[in-house]
């Protein structure tokens, strides 16, 4: 028993009294175990068993950081000088046990244990972290604590740092984008305003050009002061005393039945007859419910048919434009619908006997309504022609110099569907 050499001593002082003591000095972990004491003689044998438990309390646990792992900080705990093998536990600030990685242990030459454990701590663990090494035999424990600051956890989760960086960059990018967008919007708004200003100026120039062209066109015509011929008026048409207005009544008037009077169509002719030169006159439509009215103005051959249902067209010697309950059209064959943005209530009728043209101009804005070209007057006399079919509507012949424009000019606009003709050489849809 070399392991006990020099460390044991047997005391016989109490042998006479039945006591025998064994003293072991320099206890070692290897001394742990069962010891048997036997007493025997020739006639008897007896023994006693003693259990020797050797315990050693180790050093305080040593805590260290093992690096970043699985989105957290890996903490190591090591303690040596224990016997028997102790327990290693992890606790948070509230005393709750934390799950840990598998533990390892080893023994030195004297048989004492060294134990090591590890735990991965995330930011959810609050307060200091404690490592406890406990001896179940001695009911003793040693504890060490470590507080890990928040920056360690940010570094432990680089994706969070990257995310924060991305969010910062995104915020900067959004801010820069908003700034550039507002700057561009201001620039675009300024460009739109400039474009609108240019367009407005162009529209004014176009209106001025239209006005000038209209004036030049009308000034090349002889302005005629017309009067209506009562002998041609349909019996249901009533002329004013000065024969400058015509309206329809609900009952026929008691008038002589003359060959030159219209008996079916509600028409009347002007007294003037033209065979050469350029002439124009202004007709104004008056009355209520103009939108639902029916009327027409133009020219006709002096020999136009007066009796029966006349087909109003150039072939029958009538060149005119008609308004019919919201629709404006030229009395061509077939009819030609005309663009209508507002009801024309003041119309210049322009007759060019030399060129064989009849033009109609909206006196409120100078826009050409329609032009008959190459009209077949055949050398006949041409007379102003009027048709009124709606009760309460009257056509009036007005005195107006060609250079006098309506105050509405410049306040109205024309569409591309009905462009303003320069009117220097009228050329509307070539219809006869």
From TrEMBL:
It is a single-pass type I membrane protein. Residues 406-432 are annotated as: Disordered. InterPro entries: B30.2/SPRY, B30.2/SPRY_sf, BTN3A2-like_Ig-C, Butyrophylin_SPRY, ConA-like_dom_sf, Ig-like_dom_sf, Ig-like_fold, PRY. The keyword Transmembrane helix applies. Pfam families: C2-set_3 (PF22705), PRY (PF13765), SPRY (PF00622). It is found in: Membrane. The chain crosses the membrane at residues 161-181. PROSITE patterns: B302_SPRY (PS50188). GO terms for cellular component: membrane. The keyword Transit peptide does not apply. Residues 206-402 form the B30.2/SPRY domain. Residues 188-215 form a coiled coil. SMART domains: PRY (SM00589), SPRY (SM00449). Keywords: Coiled coil, Immunoglobulin domain, Membrane, Signal, Transmembrane, Transmembrane helix. Residues 406-423 have a biased composition (Low complexity). This is B30.2/SPRY domain-containing protein.
């Amino acid at each position: 028993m070399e392991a006990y050499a020099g460390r044991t001593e047997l005391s016989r002082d109490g042998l006479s009294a039945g006591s025998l003591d064994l003293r072991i000095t320099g206890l070692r972990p290897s001394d742990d175990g069962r010891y048997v004491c036997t007493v025997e003689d020739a006639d008897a044998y007896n023994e006693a068993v003693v259990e020797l438990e050797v315990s050693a309390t180790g050093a305080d646990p040593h805590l260290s950081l093992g690096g970043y792992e699985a989105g957290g900080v890996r903490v190591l705990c090591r303690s040596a000088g224990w016997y028997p093998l102790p327990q290693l536990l992890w606790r948070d600030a509230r005393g709750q046990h934390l799950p840990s990685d598998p533990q390892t242990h080893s023994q030195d030459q004297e048989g004492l244990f060294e134990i090591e454990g590890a735990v991965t701590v995330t930011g959810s663990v609050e307060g200091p972290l404690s490592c406890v090494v406990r001896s179940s035999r001695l009911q003793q424990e040693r504890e060490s604590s470590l507080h890990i600051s928040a920056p360690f956890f940010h570094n432990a989760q680089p994706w969070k740092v990257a995310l924060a960086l991305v969010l910062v960059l995104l915020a900067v990018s959004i801010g820069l984008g908003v700034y550039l967008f507002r700057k561009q919007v201001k620039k675009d708004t300024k460009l739109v305003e400039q474009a609108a200003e240019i367009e407005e100026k162009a529209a004014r120039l176009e209106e001025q050009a239209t006005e000038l062209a209209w004036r030049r066109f009308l000034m090349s015509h002889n302005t005629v002061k017309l009067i209506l011929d009562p002998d041609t008026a349909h019996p249901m048409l009533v002329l004013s005393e000065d024969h400058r207005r015509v309206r329809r009544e609900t009952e026929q008037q008691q008038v002589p039945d003359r060959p030159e009077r219209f008996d079916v169509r509600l028409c009347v002719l002007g007294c003037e007859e033209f065979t050469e030169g350029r002439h124009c006159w202004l007709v104004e439509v008056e009355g209520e419910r103009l939108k639902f009215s029916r009327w027409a103005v133009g020219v006709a051959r002096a020999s136009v048919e007066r009796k029966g249902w006349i087909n109003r067209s150039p072939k029958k010697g009538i060149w005119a434009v008609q308004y019919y309950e919201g629709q404006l059209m030229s009395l061509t064959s077939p009819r030609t619908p005309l663009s209508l943005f507002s009801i024309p209530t003041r119309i210049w009728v322009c007759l060019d006997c030399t060129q064989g043209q009849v033009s109609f101009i909206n006196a409120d804005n100078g826009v050409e309504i329609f032009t008959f070209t190459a009209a077949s007057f055949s050398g006949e006399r041409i007379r102003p022609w009027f048709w009124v079919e709606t009760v309460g509507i009257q056509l009036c012949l007005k005195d107006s110099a060609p250079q006098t424009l309506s105050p509405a000019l410049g306040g109205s606009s024309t569409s591309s569907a009905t462009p303003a003709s320069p009117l220097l050489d009228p050329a509307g849809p070539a219809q006869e």
